[in-house]
Write a structure and sequence with these properties.
Oligomer: single chain
Strand order of the largest sheet: 1-2
Shape: globular
Number of strands: 2
Low-confidence stretches: none
Strand content: 5-15%
Distance between the termini: 37 Å
């Protein structure tokens, strides 16, 4: 039998998680609108700048769940906007790497940095142990999300 307090906390956490995720999606939409980009383009830039090395279009497709054709069109839009550049892969001439253009991406990161400063204020009263727990939760949530995305993609679509 589940402890009533724990059950209540799970229920509260579920409701707050939905609000948190919706707020993030709406914030992402506001950033995209402000910059004249598509929300998926903003997330792609976020993923590209979080990586330590340039990515191929195939890797971008895998990370975003887009088809390679859709990922190519996404990269085309970002390239037209000056946010990324396609460069030959020095280790494999058949591949092209997508590299963020730092000066242009700075427009986006300035908004994220502003949010980051504000975000940090809500974390200031947490202990290091609590921050580690939040980090652990976010990593596990990220891993779970990726596995659930794969599971959903493997299911037959409803009629």
């Amino acid at each position: 039998m589940t402890d009533p307090r724990r059950a209540r906390l799970y229920e509260e956490l579920s409701a707050e998680s939905r609000r948190y995720l919706a707020a993030y999606v709406l914030f992402n939409q506001a950033v995209a609108d402000h910059l004249g980009l598509h929300p998926t383009d903003v997330q792609c830039l976020s993923l590209l700048t979080a990586e330590s090395a340039p990515l191929t279009v195939r890797q971008i497709a895998d990370m975003t769940g887009l088809t390679t054709g859709s990922a190519t069109r996404l990269v085309d839009r970002l390239e037209r906007g000056g946010y990324v550049a396609r460069t030959p892969d020095p280790t494999d001439r058949r591949r092209v790497l997508v590299t963020p253009v730092p000066e242009r991406v700075a427009r986006v990161t300035a908004l994220w940095d502003d949010l980051g400063r504000t975000w940090r204020t809500i974390l200031d009263d947490h202990s290091e142990d609590e921050l580690e727990a939040i980090i652990r939760h976010m990593r596990r949530g990220n891993e779970l999300s990726h596995s659930q995305i794969e599971r959903l993609r493997s299911l037959r679509k409803p009629d």
